[in-house]
Amino acid sequence: MTLTKAELADLLFERVGLNKREAKDMVEGFFEEIRVALERGDCVKLSGFGNFQLRDKPQRPGRNPKTGEEIPITARRVVTFHASQKLKAAVEQLSDASKQPQ
Amino acid sequence: MTKSELIAQLAARFPQLIAKDADYAVKMILDAMTDALARGDRIEIRGFGSFALNYRPPRVGRNPKSGEKVHVPEKYVPHFKAGKELRERVDMAG
């Protein structure tokens, strides 16, 4: 099973009492506000879940794995996620074979 | 941006809702995401990214203070991969 926006919207409809339209827009808004903050260069700290941070990566040499040709990987800004202690603890106990992911 | 700022932004986006709804919705979304990962499920949010678990095999570690060997059991750690839209928007701004 995979959790998607559709399931999150259903949950807000059933448990928060938003109508279907509002539930869908709220889920979309939740992820959009995070994107907007990151796009602005702000990191996003969601206590109990984790932090989304930005890293500026310098240019580095790369290679086309097919042709072996050298091409530089341009400097870029990337998003990294650091899970909170609470989230880490919640998934760590997943070790019994019955619950293995995928 | 913190969780409370996110809630305030969403409350402003939905003036027809009471502020408490945005607060409850954010907590509900984060709880559902935590629960999904705790069950071993993946999370896929188109345009944002996906969360999955990475397996860490058991290993023998060392207590950095005493130098003593300690067994570290296998575990899973959460992993986030940014989606195309997020990747492009963040890089464009930088």
Automatic annotation (TrEMBL), chain A:
<keyword id="KW-0805">Transcription regulation</keyword>
<dbReference type="GO" id="GO:0005829">
    <property type="term" value="C:cytosol"/>
</dbReference>
<keyword id="KW-0804">Transcription</keyword>
<protein>
    <recommendedName>
        <fullName>Integration host factor subunit alpha</fullName>
    </recommendedName>
</protein>
<dbReference type="GO" id="GO:0006310">
    <property type="term" value="P:DNA recombination"/>
</dbReference>
<comment type="function">
    <text>This protein is one of the two subunits of integration host factor, a specific DNA-binding protein that functions in genetic recombination as well as in transcriptional and translational control.</text>
</comment>
<dbReference type="Pfam" id="PF00216">
    <property type="entry name" value="Bac_DNA_binding"/>
</dbReference>
<dbReference type="GO" id="GO:0009893">
    <property type="term" value="P:positive regulation of metabolic process"/>
</dbReference>
<dbReference type="InterPro" id="IPR000119">
    <property type="entry name" value="Hist_DNA-bd"/>
</dbReference>
<dbReference type="GO" id="GO:0030527">
    <property type="term" value="F:structural constituent of chromatin"/>
</dbReference>
<dbReference type="GO" id="GO:0003677">
    <property type="term" value="F:DNA binding"/>
</dbReference>
<keyword id="KW-0238">DNA-binding</keyword>
<comment type="similarity">
    <text>Belongs to the bacterial histone-like protein family.</text>
</comment>
<comment type="subunit">
    <text>Heterodimer of an alpha and a beta chain.</text>
</comment>
<dbReference type="InterPro" id="IPR020816">
    <property type="entry name" value="Histone-like_DNA-bd_CS"/>
</dbReference>
<keyword id="KW-0233">DNA recombination</keyword>
<dbReference type="GO" id="GO:0006417">
    <property type="term" value="P:regulation of translation"/>
</dbReference>
<dbReference type="GO" id="GO:0006355">
    <property type="term" value="P:regulation of DNA-templated transcription"/>
</dbReference>
<dbReference type="InterPro" id="IPR005684">
    <property type="entry name" value="IHF_alpha"/>
</dbReference>
<keyword id="KW-0810">Translation regulation</keyword>
<dbReference type="InterPro" id="IPR010992">
    <property type="entry name" value="IHF-like_DNA-bd_dom_sf"/>
</dbReference>
From TrEMBL, chain B:
<keyword id="KW-0810">Translation regulation</keyword>
<dbReference type="GO" id="GO:0006355">
    <property type="term" value="P:regulation of DNA-templated transcription"/>
</dbReference>
<dbReference type="InterPro" id="IPR010992">
    <property type="entry name" value="IHF-like_DNA-bd_dom_sf"/>
</dbReference>
<dbReference type="InterPro" id="IPR000119">
    <property type="entry name" value="Hist_DNA-bd"/>
</dbReference>
<dbReference type="GO" id="GO:0005694">
    <property type="term" value="C:chromosome"/>
</dbReference>
<dbReference type="GO" id="GO:0030527">
    <property type="term" value="F:structural constituent of chromatin"/>
</dbReference>
<keyword id="KW-0233">DNA recombination</keyword>
<dbReference type="Pfam" id="PF00216">
    <property type="entry name" value="Bac_DNA_binding"/>
</dbReference>
<protein>
    <recommendedName>
        <fullName>Integration host factor subunit beta</fullName>
    </recommendedName>
</protein>
<keyword id="KW-0238">DNA-binding</keyword>
<dbReference type="GO" id="GO:0003677">
    <property type="term" value="F:DNA binding"/>
</dbReference>
<dbReference type="GO" id="GO:0005829">
    <property type="term" value="C:cytosol"/>
</dbReference>
<comment type="similarity">
    <text>Belongs to the bacterial histone-like protein family.</text>
</comment>
<dbReference type="GO" id="GO:0006417">
    <property type="term" value="P:regulation of translation"/>
</dbReference>
<dbReference type="GO" id="GO:0006310">
    <property type="term" value="P:DNA recombination"/>
</dbReference>
<keyword id="KW-0804">Transcription</keyword>
<comment type="subunit">
    <text>Heterodimer of an alpha and a beta chain.</text>
</comment>
<keyword id="KW-0805">Transcription regulation</keyword>
<comment type="function">
    <text>This protein is one of the two subunits of integration host factor, a specific DNA-binding protein that functions in genetic recombination as well as in transcriptional and translational control.</text>
</comment>
<dbReference type="InterPro" id="IPR005685">
    <property type="entry name" value="IHF_beta"/>
</dbReference>
